[in-house]
Amino acid sequence: MANGDLIKFGTLYLGGVKQARPTRPWTGVTNVPIPPGASDYGDIPSYNNTSKPVIEIRDTDTNDAYKIQWREVTVDGKKLLICDRVILINITWNDLNTYGLIFGKTFTIDGRQCKLRVLTGGETYRSNGDPFSGGTPTSNEWDRIITNESNFSGLPKPSTSDLDTNKDENDMNSVHNKFWNWYYIYSFCQEAFDKDNNKRPVRGYHSARYLDWSSPSGYGVSTGWRPVLEILNSIPTLTLSTQNNITLSEGNILPITGSASDTDNGDVVTVKYKINSGTIRNITSGVVNGTPLSFAKNLTFSGKRLRDGSTEVTVDLAENVDHTLTVWAEDDKGGKSAEVTRKFRVIHNRPPVISGTNEDLGTIQAIPSKTYTVTEPEGDAFTVTEKIDGKVIRSFAGVAGQENTITIPHDMWIRLQPGVQHTLAVEATDSKGMTSSRTYTFVRQETKLEFKLKNPFVTDIAAKSCHPRCGGPKRSDNENRSMQQRL
User: Fold this and answer.
1) Rounded CA gap, 15 and 47, in Å?
2) What does each C-alpha distance from 190 to 25, 80, 149, 204, 213 come to in angstroms?
3) Which of 42, 57, 121, 413 could form an SS bridge with 10, CB 3.0 to 4.6 Å?
4) Of 243, 201, 172, which is closest to residue 24 (Cα–Cα)?
5) 3-class DSSP state of 472
6) Ordered domains of the chain (ranges, CATH)
7) How far is Cα 281 from Cα 308, in angstroms, rounded to an integer?
8) What is the pLDDT of residue 378?
9) Alpha helices of 88-138 — where are they, by DSSP H?
10) Three-state DSSP state, 305
């Protein structure tokens, strides 16, 4: 920024009510003719001297009509913002002083620490009681800056007609008046006029250099408050490298990276962040020395939450809605950068999907087999494990969409107990640990062997005993051989 630049910064509030910037910044007297060259009476906000509302300049309103306009100028190494017009009339010098607005009161506006005051305007006439001659001492700010006797680059100088004794439309429409808006309105200044505390200097109205005085307890529609801001602390600036509108799935990283700067060397700058309206957390801090302060933090999305290492920094984050990352920088003097935001969405981790449905195969004699496929919603790697009654048949790296067949090896099949329920299962586990399964239950039918003699025979030999398993006496080896020969 440079001398003369127009800055829109802050909004005037009276008793908590914001005030529009005047667009006709001259006297509001309605019982005298409209000022030459003007289209109407002035519209500068008027102070209520009965209720005496609190005067504030708050953060800049989003509506341009409520933004105060200032001209920037650097004087003796100090940056000033001088209001380009009077923004409040019908107020006394004493009331302004009660609020600390004559000699200086500290405000924080848009995160910037500022001292709010009025200009110095001189203690008396410069030449033989001539109000058009300017003020003395000549170091007063009105003459140095507004009439630009210090020859500041970027600031206009008044023309001859701006300095003469005529008030006419040439003054109204001059480049200098359009820049500083002094025509038909006085601006309060700091000093005691002629060292009399019952007189306070006022500047403008009749010409760009005109000097007069007013009672500190007097008020009217022709005199008002033109504030000056001293920038006490420059706010930090922040650059955020994090991409906008990213989507996080299980295990993904939300990187918070960028840099912060502050033109006030020696300030301690802290970079902060929050997710949605959650807890404010620090990323990093350091003393600025002309080099940007870099920062980097990785948050991991896991189990529906963002985590900084093992620390959860959010509650469960909903799917299919925008979430907001907000990052900003603060210095140790109360300055705060603009907040920078990024939107992101999350996808909750889902297990692999196994085709088909769980199924009861009933009572079966033959070894069962079932075909299936597996897909992974997030495209993660996954492992397939096939089991019979919890025992692993095989395990292998899955291929999404590939057809597989689960069956039971013969040596495992013949060991399955007949007549009881068994479970054949397929399990698919993704790389994030999410598992799904498909089960097939069945009962193995008992296998019976039936023997028939090819040539039946008849015998009249009475049975002497039963097989030992039936509880009969045990036969000798000779009796067994004899029985086998007869058969």
Assistant:
1) 10
2) 21, 16, 19, 15, 11
3) 57
4) 172
5) coil
6) 6-233 (no CATH), 237-346 (2.60.40.10), 353-444 (2.60.40.10)
7) 11
8) 82
9) 93-98
10) strand
Could you report the per-residue pLDDT of 177-203, keeping only the tens digit for each? Answer: 999 999 999 999 999 999 999 999 999
What's the rounded Cα separation, in Å, for the pair 158 and 284?
51
Structure tokens at 98: 């009660």
Cα 386 from Cα 403, distance rounded (Å): 14
What stretch of H or E contains 169? Answer: helix 169-172
User: Which residues are registered as beta bridge partners of 225?
Assistant: 88
| CB-based burial label for 115 (10 Å; 0-12, 13-18, 19+) | middle
Q: How far apart are CA 267 and CA 329, in angstroms?
A: 12
pLDDT band (50, 70, 90) for residue 468: very low
Distance, CA of 69 to CA of 83 (rounded, Å):
6
For residues 112-125, give the mean pLDDT: 94
- H or E stretch at 283: strand 281-287
- Asked whether the predicted pLDDT for residue 454 surpasses 80, the reply is no
Whether the Cβ atoms of residue 3 and residue 79 lie closer than 8 Å to each other: no
Q: In the predicted model, is pLDDT for residue 461 greater than 80? A: no
Residues 382, 398 contacting (CB under 8 angstroms): yes
- Phi and psi torsions of 95, nearest 5°: -65, -45
Residue 422 half-sphere exposure toward CB, CA atoms < 13 A = 24
First and final C-alpha spacing in the chain: 120
Overall size of the chain counted in residues: 487
Residue with tokens 């469960």: 316
Digit-coded pLDDT (tens) for 22-48: 999 999 777 778 999 998 999 999 999
Q: Are 50 and 24 in contact (CB under 8 A)?
A: no
- Confirm if 26 and 183 have CB atoms less than 8 A apart: yes
**What share of residues in the chain are helix, strand, coil (percent, to 5)?**
10, 40, 50
Other Cβ atoms closer than 10 A to 185: 26
Measured distance CA(45)–CA(19) in Å, rounded: 7
Q: Which of 109 and 62 is assigned the larger pLDDT?
A: 62
Residue 470: the pLDDT is 46
Query: What is d(CA 2, CA 210) in angstroms, rounded to the nearest whole number?
Result: 27
CA 249 to chain centroid, in Å, comes to 21
- Interval 198-251: pLDDT, tens: 999 999 999 999 999 999 999 989 999 999 999 888 889 999 999 999 999 888
pLDDT in tens, 311-351: 999 999 999 899 999 999 999 988 889 999 999 999 988 89
